[in-house]
Amino acid sequence: MEEILLIERTGDIATVTLNRPDKLNALSKALWQAVGDAMTTLAGDESLRCIVLRGAGTRAFSPGADIKEFESERANFAQAKAYGTIMHQTMAAIRDCPIPTVALIQGICVGGGLELAIMCDLRICGASSRFGVPINRIGVIMAYPEIEALIDLVGRATALEILLEGRVFAAQEAKEKGLVTRVVPDDQVEAEAYASARRIADGAPHANRLHKQFARRLLTPQPLTPSEFDEGFASANYADYQEGYRAFVEKRTPRFTGR
Question: Cys-Cys link to 181, which of 23, 117, 122, 193 (CB 3.0-4.6 A)?
């Protein structure tokens, strides 16, 4: 049986592919779990510098959850809660991954597919891609963790517009709403996403990880502690810091080691 999730690695960049092209990469319960497990495993690999998340083929990133599965996997409170727990663990695994992540979006990206994509750090899509969360059409409720992620990205008013109207909209509107980072011609999505991943991977990995950590920390209301504030300055003790400024002075490409 064909694997529902593919994990490939090229040097310091890993690709995680939702692999149900016959279903437009619809997210089954098993696929939700597989994505979470993969991201948790990859997060511990200090030699990785970027992860690309994508769907198989060019027709869809993902149209969201596999609705045909709901009768057996999400038909009552207990099932819905168990299903939601897996979803939220997977979303958190992407959000909390210390390695920078890029969503490569081709075609449809709605519902749960969009929820996966918005957990990535960058989202690069094609001009014909389509976005939205039309779950009120089938009576499904977006839970607190999912709404929190959407509001963090686009703000409360836009999040409510997306949820209450349930409209599927074009890539340019998604860019205007802040849902995607960059829109490129359809035939350039893959090249641009991997070029972005390469630019990320060429940077100092410790700097990238701290930038992710700091940006996440600033979402919480508690004041920064002195030790937290000093963490950025402490990076001057790292080998990558020394290598970075010396390479600049010497007009050469830095060789970062992550130390």
Answer: 122
